[in-house]
Amino acid sequence: MPILPHADLLSKDKLEEVRDCPNCKGSNSEVLFTEKGYPTAECKNCKFIFLKLRLKEEHLGLIYDNQSYHSVSNSNYNRLIGEKRLRLLPKMNKSARLHEDGAGSGAFLFAALSQNYNASGNDYGQDSIDKAKQQFNVIIKKGSLADSHLDDSELDVLVSFNLLCHLYNPWEYFDEVQRVLKKGGYLLLRTGNRQGFFKKFHQGKWGAPEHIYHYNLKTINDLLKPRGFKIQWVKPAFDSDFPYLFFNYSQNPNAYFRKAAGHICSLSIRLWNVLGLPKDDVFILAKRE
Question: Which of 3, 180, 250, 251 could cross-link with 150 by S-S, CB 3.0 to 4.6 Å?
Answer without folding.
Answer: 180
